[in-house]
C-alpha cells in the first residue's frame, strides 16, 4: 500500500519529468526557428545588390546590369556610375564602338 507521502513524491517526480520534457521541446523549437532565421538572413544578404562603382546599396528598380554583360550592377540614377564603369569594364574591348580611354 502506498502512503500519502509516497504519492506526493511520485507526483513531484512526474511533474519534474514533464517539465524537463517541455524544456527539451522548447529548446528544439527555439533551435529550429533560430536556424530558419539565420538561413533567411543569409539569403537576404546574398540577394543584396551594390553598385559596382559607388558601392551604394541598390533595390530592385534602382539599378541596371552592365550593358556589356559583365554582370556588374550600376545605379540608374547616377549616369557617372555607368559611364565610369563602361570605361573600365572588363568586357569593353568586345564592343568596338566604345571610345578607348588612356591609350
Ligand atoms: Zn553607383
Ligand atoms: Zn561591365
- Write down the overall mean pLDDT: 88
Q: Give every kind of bound small molecule, once each.
A: zinc ion
Number of helices: 2
Largest sheet: 2 strands, antiparallel
Read across the widest sheet, the strand sequence of neighbours is: 1-2
Region (Disordered): 14-38
Structure overview:
Residues 14-38 are annotated as: Disordered. This protein has 103 residues and is mainly α. It folds into 2 domains: 1-47; 49-92. The chain is built from 2 helices and 4 strands, in the order H-E-E-E-E-H. The protein has helices at residues 4-47, 79-88, and strands spanning 49-50, 57-58, 63-65, 73-75. The strands form 2 sheets. The chain has a two-stranded antiparallel sheet. Strand 3 (63-65) and strand 4 form a beta hairpin. The relative contact order is 0.08. The structure holds zinc ion (ZN) (2 copies). One zinc ion is lined by residues 66, 68, 70, 72, 85, 89, 91.
Descriptors for this entry?
2 domains, binds zinc ion, rod-shaped, 103 residues, two-stranded antiparallel sheet
Gist?
The protein is mostly helical and 103 residues long.
Question: Any chance you could write out the topology, listing elements then pairs?
Answer:
Elements: H1 4-47, E1 49-50, E2 57-58, E3 63-65, E4 73-75, H2 79-88
Antiparallel strand pairs: 1-2, 3-4
